[in-house]
Amino acid sequence: MWSSLKNQLLLSSIVALAMLLLSIWCVTRSFMNLSVTLLVLICIYIAGLNLWFWRYVTGPIGELTRFSKHIAEGSYGIKLEVYGEDELSQLTQEINNMSEKVAVAEKSRTDFISQVSHELRTPLTAIMGWSETIAFDPAVQGDSLRGINIISKEAERLTGMVTELLEFTRIQDGRFNLRIELIDIAAELEDALFTYGELMKQAGMEVNYSGPPAEIPLIPGDPERLKQVFCNLLDNAAKHGGDGERIDVRLREEGDHVRISFRDYGHGIPEAELPHVKEKFYKGSSKNRGTGIGLSVCDEIVSRHGGELTVANAVDGGCIVTVTLPLTSA
Questions:
Q1: Is 325 helix (H, G, I), strand (E, B) or coil?
Q2: R_g over Cα of the chain
Q3: pLDDT digits over 98-121, tens only?
């Protein structure tokens, strides 16, 4: 059985066709005055029909399109008002139901990730602690010591993944907060370089740092979160650009912003994957182990500072990640 919207469209088409046929009949019968009047009425009717179509069909479809884009971008659970009982109203109701179900599924997934991550932290801490203790035992030598070191390294890697997952759940739940204060951005970056520098040297990676030519004034930021970003980006550069055996880090003040770039000399990122690298759980064609959310968390932290994180391929090879932060708070 047809709904009201279909009936209205069909009735409008029949009326317009009848008026057109009547106008043609009047012309053939030489009723010129009546035919002109009918043509004017047809024009007015078509204009009114177009306005009606825009108001009740094109407008709602455009609103549904924008609404669907918001859901696709992660705004799960939002709903549109439903008016009437025609096809568009039914479609709106179905999209509302879908949005609600996706929100419930996303909440369940986030809760599961959070619970599992918390449960993993305790045993991983114990594994790391005991493996380091056993490694210092003089009785453990040869392959046994090598195995203990592997256990310690893998436990540390898993702990990093669990930390990323917990950060992700905090962002999803709205529990992710910043403690903004005035910080020395150069000092925070240099601390991160010092933290990772020795590890990278052991892995055969050369890290070249180009500091600012002049002192940068204190900027508003969360020192712990920004250091987390810097360490994560250095780790990514080492993992994905390891073939180049070199990482260039550059800090500059440009206008009313500070720019920090991390450049590796690896194979770069396929162009088709570049628009997606900051998406949650996206790994693309990368064979490196990980959760795929580290860059997403970094992007969230930088965005909450009023800045921007961009990822691009360098002209002569490799990948360059740039963090742009404002000198003053918005």
A1: strand
A2: 31
A3: 878 877 777 777 777 777 777 777
